[in-house]
Amino acid sequence: MSIFEQQAAKIRNQPGFIAALDQSGGSTPKALKLYGVAESSYSGEAQMMDLVHAMRSRIVTSPAFAGNRVAGAILFEATMDREFQGLPAAEFLWTKKQVVPFLKIDKGLADESNGVQLMKPMPTLDALLVKAKSKGIFGTKERSVIKQANAEGIRAVVTQQFEVARQVLGHGLTPIVEPEVDIHCPEKAAAEKLLKAEILMQLDKLPADKQVMLKLTLPDVDNFYQELVQHPRVLKVVALSGGYSRDDANARLSRQKGMIASFSRALTEGLTAQQSDAQFNASLDQAIEGIYQASKT
Question: Most CB atoms within 10 A, among 67, 83, 134, 291?
Answer without folding.
Answer: 291
